[in-house]
Amino acid sequence: MLQMNNVPFRIQSIRSASAAPQKDHELRIIYIANGGGAYYEQNRLVKTGGDSLFFLHNPTPGRVEISEESQGQVYSFTHEFIQHIPLVHELSMFGAEHMSSAILVGSPVKQEVELILQKISAEYESERHYRLDIIRDYLKIIVRHISRSMHQQQQSWSASRKTGMVRQFLQLLDQQYTALKKVTHYAEKLHVTSNHLNTTLKDITGITASEHIRRRVISEAKLLALHRENYSMKEIAYHLGFEDKSHFSKYFKNASGKNFTNYKKELAMEA
Fold this sequence. Notes:
Helix content: 55-70%
Distance between the termini: 10 Å
Order of helices and strands: EHEEEEEEHHEHHHHHHHHHH
Shape: globular
Oligomer: single chain
Structural class: alpha+beta
CATH architecture of the largest domain: Sandwich
Strand content: 15-25%
Number of helices: 13
């Protein structure tokens, strides 16, 4: 099973997750197998029975209530793991418009998502190579399924200029973070100023464009270090687009506050 001190993803029982502190900007998928629950939508309490599925991004405490007898699982993804998936932010804004941080996933999408969650669980329990990459890809598919099912409801906000810019930036970042590491690079491609891009990202996602870039590079470096232990620092630096390992080492220390060599040693001790 994955060691959780450095891995930005975990699966817990509903009871264990309820007792754990919520992290900022965390995404949670809650599956209630039996029992019951409720969530707030437009300040109205909506009750649900067993076999319910909730999607929450940056959830507000108390927006979802789960009965004590309920059983199920909670899939938690930190901001570091999901921050480069554009549709996560769109679904978060959809929830905000409806005065709720929770989205109840309905049929037939729920069945599709449940099947993918089973695959995520299998990867989580495995010791196979690239399992974190695969889990992240599965999460992208889940988010796309949910977004597509809500397409008609999203039309009022998804076409806005700000939302479109965020989507374009995050897509560019996911494709070109190894080559482009400055806000000016992305601002030029989006035909806006760096200040405007930073401000827009801050307003919608909670962090600036420059912080998104740093987190994207660092999260990938940590994933490479985690499950490709035989990669040297030089090889990881090359994979991430740095000219040499000293440049990468300085970037990692400035962005994460940790020395990369010491970080890899910590991983080796936990393995």
